[in-house]
Amino acid sequence: MPPSAATHSSDLMEVIAARRSQARMRAGLAIGLTLGFGAVTGWAWAIAWLCLYGGLQALEFYVLARRTPPPWAAVSLLLANSVVFGIFALAGPINDGVFGLCCWICLLCGGQLNSALTSQKSRTAFLASSTPFALYLAMTPFVALWLGAKWHQTGAIAASAILIVIFTHMIWRAAARALTAESEARALAEAADAAKSAFVAMVSHELRTPISAILAGAVEAKDARSASAQQSNLELISSSARMMRTLLDDLLDMSKIEAGRMGVEVTAFDLRRLLLETVRFWAPVARRENLAFRLEGARRLPAWVKGDPTRIRQILNNLLSNALKFTQEGAITLRMAADRHPDGSVGLTLEVIDTGPGMTDEQIGGLFTAYGQLSNSVARTHGGTGLGLNISRELARLMGGDLAAESAPGRGATFRLSLDLDLAQAETSAEAAPQEQTGLRMLIVDDHEINRRAFTLILQGAVDSIATAENGQDALAILARERFDVVLMDLNMPRMGGLDCTRALRAAAGPNQTTPVIALTASAARSEIDVCLAVGMNAFVMKPVEAAELFGAIERVLGAQADAAIVAA
Fold first, then answer.
1. Which of 104, 184, 241, 253 is 20 to 30 A from residue 455's alpha carbon, by CA?
2. In CATH, which of 3.30.565.10, 3.40.50.720, 3.60.150.10, 1.10.1040.10 is domain 267-423?
3. Strand, coil or helix: what is 553?
4. What is the 3-state secondary structure (H, E, C) of 476-500?
5. What are the tens digits of pLDDT across the range 48-96?
6. Which segments of the chain belong to CATH 3.40.50.2300?
7. Long-range Cβ pairs for the range 257-264 (8 Å, 24+)
8. 478/482 Cα distance (integer angstroms)
9. Span 316-339, pLDDT tens digits
């Protein structure tokens, strides 16, 4: 969009305001020119010029003393300054011949460059201050002829004058573009900073809701007199904790994306099963909202493919959650399609279509921007961090695909996830059914008492014996005396962290040298997981830990240990 007249006027006033601070510099320059060029131009002319230039500066100071002088007055003063400044050395060729002409050209070059450097913000100011110098430069070939220069010498002077004018304009244009780019970058940075500040305030508000519910539920649970009341309070605490985890997961994912540490994996998985499980989860939610939930194209999908099932599920959950938030009536449709490529891979397209209010082009343009909601009312009405769509698009691109949106006001919205996936062979080995573990001895190593108590609450009743340690040193002392079946190990602890503790455990001959160690970490960065595996840990569980994830990890490491024992036998 071209700048408006108001913008031009504002830019001109900024240049004029900058001139106020340069008044002393111009006065000193005028005195220096008078002393330096007086012998060339003649002292009478030099002193007369100094008086004229000084009077013009006084007039400029008087006019510009007003905070917002009229634009015509500002332009007139710029023109007058350049006219008077450039005419000073015109007497040089008259009094001192060719040497005086050289001095005049040098003075005009300096004036042109000064115009370019002091008027970067305003084209009007640049034209007003540089045009008189350009006209003076146009006169120099004729003055040279008058002084007796030959035609080829005059041509060289004319070419030099033209080049000076062209180069000055190029310098101004480059400086103006750099200044504009700097201003735009500053505006973007300020907008991003403001958005992040608003985002932090919003997340703080969002976290207060589940925290308040947890505190209230805990108080009520302590005073509850019936099993049903106790169950209701526990459900409140559980749902609030899950809400907090969702918020924190979004923050963690976004921080990893911004730091370039987000990774995706490639593993064989059953695509149809993943989609079926997703539909089974969201269909009852849609029914509770009196919305139809439709599934299209599932039969044409390949069964087994290679990709990151966790991230694909995360993207779908984000899209379906948003569709349900913004759809008051009608239906949610999950449309699926797969195209076979010549190289044997599959182009997978998953579309989530809703019948909600739709969006304008402007809203779609900012839809995938981090730290933003479509409006403040969205955060108040529907909650959440507003990071879901941005995270989903970044995840799609990390997997070599993309996420796009189409919508129009009153016509709902369509979100399209596109991925290229390689086909995979179906896994034929059936997974062993979960078996109840009895007689297990567990060591929990974590420096926070709340975490140790939480893990104990999750595990009690499922294992036979639980011991705890506050840091790696205490854990090594316990592990040297007693035999355990599984160790839960926090990574960041005082005195000795989980990595050093596990490294020492594997290096020392003892009763737990081969005992499975499960890392408890708040980071899912691939680099950190690799370090955990390198020091001898067997699995990891993300904090905050849910019971199903913890029991799943325990079952996997015990199963792997049993398989290894069979192979060794």
1. 253
2. 3.30.565.10
3. helix
4. HHHHHHCCCCEEEEECCCCCCCHHH
5. 888 888 888 777 777 766 666 677 777 887 788 878 887 877 777 777 7
6. 441-568
7. 257/391, 257/394, 258/370, 261/525, 261/526, 261/527, 262/394, 262/395, 262/398, 263/398, 263/525, 263/526, 264/308, 264/311, 264/395, 264/398, 264/399
8. 6
9. 988 998 888 888 899 999 999 999
Which pLDDT score is estimated for 424? 86
Q: Which two tokens stand for residue 550?
A: 């913890």
* Amino acid making up residue 303: A
Q: What is the pLDDT of residue 486?
A: 93
Inter-residue contact 396 to 403 (CB < 8 Å) = yes
The pair of structure tokens assigned to 59 is 């007039």
Per-residue model confidence (pLDDT) at position 487: 94
Cβ atoms within 10 Å, residue 187? 10
β-bridge pairing 304-307 and 413-423: antiparallel
Closest-CA residue to 349 (of 300, 398, 306, 387): 300
Query: Beta strand pairing status for 441-445 and 465-469?
Result: parallel
Q: What is the distance between the alpha carbons of residues 352 and 366, in angstroms, rounded to a whole number?
A: 19
Cβ density class 233-267: b for 16+ within 10 Å, e for less: beebbeebbebbbbbbbbebbbebbeeeebebeee
Whether residue 424 contacts residue 302, with contact meaning beta carbons closer than 8 Å, is answered with no
pLDDT digits (tens, 9 = 90+) for 513-569: 999 999 988 766 667 788 888 999 998 888 777 777 888 888 888 877 766 655 554
User: Which residue is listed with tokens 């076979």?
Assistant: 340
Block residue for tokens 């009196």: 290
What is the length of the chain?
569
Residue 270 DSSP SS3 = strand
